[in-house]
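Here is one chain, start to finish.
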Amino acid sequence: MGLLDSFEKGLERAVNGAFAKTFRSGVQPVEIASALRGELDREAAVVSRDRILAPNDFTVLLHPSDSDQMARIGPSLSTELNEVVAKHAAKQGYSFAGAVRIRIRPDDEVSAGTIRIESAAAEGAQVSWQAVVSINGREHTLTAARTVIGRGSDADITIADTGTSRKHVEILWDGTSAMVRDLGSTNGSKLDGAPVKKAPLASGSVIRIGRTDIVFRVVPRAAAPRRGPQDAATQIFDAEDPRR
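Its structure:
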């Protein structure tokens, strides 16, 4: 399965049926992913025998109507696009000067259905890795070591699905690795289509409880720089995996 095929499958899971009608015309999300890959390849420059520097700051310019459609997806699209950039950079052996930022902005000078990308290599912040889950098109950041998901009000993430137990599954995250564990639910749980009681989680895994799919991902974030108490930290996405 190709990279863009994986992107399309991930996006289909992340975006609910209400958004599906949006993409029957105009710019498709997968076209933005393809354009970002092309920009990386065109602008990558050899700076030494062992280093190919690629741009890390991207502005995706779209006609206002196309930009509005992309905005309706929310954080799920940013996560998908950053995964595409990270995987393509790793495959091609590119490195970045700093955190990768991908912004989508409207531009009246861009024709409907077309994409223009501006990019630059800019120094940025250190990278950290964050676990997130996407449920019914909404992204939840896992901030605790243990996150309980179910239909009960006492669950950390509550799902309006009568096919789930009050406390159905838990996700354990230590900042490096993750695990899913069924909490003795009535209807059981599945991981990537197979029944599961307890198993490690890889980024992109799909947990199914009741009629609800939970997409687990580990995404790059820019670590907040050290600042004074009066300064607010800005969070951005980064596409370089420090484990490479």
